[in-house]
């Protein structure tokens, strides 16, 4: 991975690299974020990212009237200042705003909008082609139906899970929930194929409902491949014929090893990689 | 001395009201905080706050060598700039630091230290004397043993729970965990007395191990009053003879009403208020 240049940041439409200390995003993680891939300067699946952001605002009670229009203006401003094709990642963060006292979210708070451009991580080992080794994390995700699915700023579980290993050959850690059901990776969603059927964990009690995950559900369905969402134990994945991870930056990474279990890169994985690439071209 | 009502903030020892956008405290809630009461300019139970902060650093793997010494220097600097007796609250926030990419907490990150002075909230209705009405929140706290007890920055559950009511006559909301056991209030810990014995929830799976809570455990013990920590249903509290809330700013508030259940302010509550007041004088 390389990160050569400092990110370019707009806060509420203004070029800056700082934020008021009293922002509730810092105080309580009281906000949401989206990580958008820029492909030749084009933000991929942007409307789906905005939709999830709005859903998150509704769930958290963050004022969202006019928010997307303002984010579009911010993005235009960024594009007028920077050649977006020179950047790989657009991170959008929205917090409930600055000020207020204590946990009570006052209704007159104005949400903070943060857009940050940074370079795409470079993976010299071509994990999308060759697949990746993953591990099982010790940390188990809490069950929290009120926060499940949305991409909020309370990410200590992911930080602690990602801190469990430093071996760069291991590219992701899989997470079970408190009851032992498979949920996702620390930064990705998980799919696998078993006897010709595709499976992925349901995310109603923990996990993040990923934009690429949801796009894959639609693409698979259009292809006549139904995906079964449910609660599955690790053993179900271990019996799979193929498996993959996905998120908005990595697209699809085949999983080729988990502890002693090894997989070839499978045909369904390759087919969905192809469909996603075509989908990106069309969107 | 500033007469402004705006908080006075030191970030890493420098007077400012802003923070780098790339701070992991904002990105992931990757940090901790302490809320310290200033009594006539004296920070109450400061050593216990530092101890909990260090415990939190160890739990999260945040570098803590020399941290408390630097926080003491920051506090001295604040005291040289401001008459602390004019302020009521010192909030100390420590994050893992700025920068890095993704969830992986790089070991060379330098923690961010934030000290903020603000006015104490004024409660015209003297809740410590007259007691408060509380409600039961709908939100149930997730079970998260890895995060339980410490005062980390992932506080969306508290924000959502506090958003459940706006009636200013209700001063606190009580929270059950996902399994239905009593945990705490949104901003306070909870005690009650039943047939001459004192009870409080154990906080090994959710909740914040409050500084005043832990001081009360010690003070009660010195008084020959043992406190039983365990898992209790709401019905156990409803059968209580008296109950109270505590935190570092409110000290002890007697609970006088929960839905239809009403309590007088009880003798154990009053005794512990007295012991805490004396303890503050001595510390």
Automatic annotation (TrEMBL), chains A, B:
<protein>
    <recommendedName>
        <fullName>Aminodeoxychorismate lyase</fullName>
        <ecNumber>4.1.3.38</ecNumber>
    </recommendedName>
</protein>
<dbReference type="InterPro" id="IPR050571">
    <property type="entry name" value="Class-IV_PLP-Dep_Aminotrnsfr"/>
</dbReference>
<comment type="similarity">
    <text>Belongs to the class-IV pyridoxal-phosphate-dependent aminotransferase family.</text>
</comment>
<dbReference type="InterPro" id="IPR001544">
    <property type="entry name" value="Aminotrans_IV"/>
</dbReference>
<comment type="subunit">
    <text>Homodimer.</text>
</comment>
<dbReference type="Pfam" id="PF01063">
    <property type="entry name" value="Aminotran_4"/>
</dbReference>
<keyword id="KW-0456">Lyase</keyword>
<dbReference type="InterPro" id="IPR018300">
    <property type="entry name" value="Aminotrans_IV_CS"/>
</dbReference>
<dbReference type="GO" id="GO:0008696">
    <property type="term" value="F:4-amino-4-deoxychorismate lyase activity"/>
</dbReference>
<keyword id="KW-0289">Folate biosynthesis</keyword>
<dbReference type="InterPro" id="IPR036038">
    <property type="entry name" value="Aminotransferase-like"/>
</dbReference>
<dbReference type="InterPro" id="IPR043131">
    <property type="entry name" value="BCAT-like_N"/>
</dbReference>
<comment type="pathway">
    <text>Cofactor biosynthesis; tetrahydrofolate biosynthesis; 4-aminobenzoate from chorismate: step 2/2.</text>
</comment>
<keyword id="KW-0663">Pyridoxal phosphate</keyword>
<dbReference type="InterPro" id="IPR043132">
    <property type="entry name" value="BCAT-like_C"/>
</dbReference>
<dbReference type="InterPro" id="IPR017824">
    <property type="entry name" value="Aminodeoxychorismate_lyase_IV"/>
</dbReference>
């Amino acid at each position: 991975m390389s990160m050569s240049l400092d990110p370019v940041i707009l806060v509420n439409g203004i070029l800056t690299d700082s934020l008021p200390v009293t922002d509730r995003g810092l105080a309580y993680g009281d906000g949401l974020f989206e990580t958008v891939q820029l492909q030749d300067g084009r933000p991929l699946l942007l409307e789906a990212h905005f939709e999830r952001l709005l859903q998150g605002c509704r769930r958290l009670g963050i004022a969202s009237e006019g928010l997307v229009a303002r984010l579009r203006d911010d993005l235009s401003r960024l594009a007028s200042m920077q050649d977006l094709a020179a950047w790989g990642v657009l991170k959008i963060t929205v917090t409930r705003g600055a000020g207020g006292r204590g946990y009570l979210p006052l209704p007159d708070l104005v949400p903070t909008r943060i857009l940050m451009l940074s370079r795409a991580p470079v993976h010299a080992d071509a994990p999308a082609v060759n697949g990746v080794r993953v591990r099982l994390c010790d940390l188990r995700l809490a069950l929290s139906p009120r926060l499940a699915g949305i991409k909020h700023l309370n990410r200590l579980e992911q930080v602690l899970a990602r801190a469990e290993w430093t071996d760069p050959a291991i590219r992701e850690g899989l997470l079970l929930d408190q009851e032992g059901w498979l949920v996702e990776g620390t930064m990705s969603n998980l799919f696998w194929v078993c006897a010709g059927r595709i499976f992925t964990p349901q995310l109603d009690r923990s996990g993040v409902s990923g934009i690429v995950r949801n796009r894959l559900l639609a693409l698979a369905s259009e292809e006549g491949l139904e995906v079964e969402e449910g609660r599955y134990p690790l053993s179900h994945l271990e019996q799979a014929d193929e498996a993959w991870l996905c998120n908005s930056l990595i697209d699809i990474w085949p999983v080729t090893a988990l502890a002693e279990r090894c997989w070839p890169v499978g045909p369904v994985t390759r087919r969905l990689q192809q469909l996603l690439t075509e989908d990106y071209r069309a969107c």
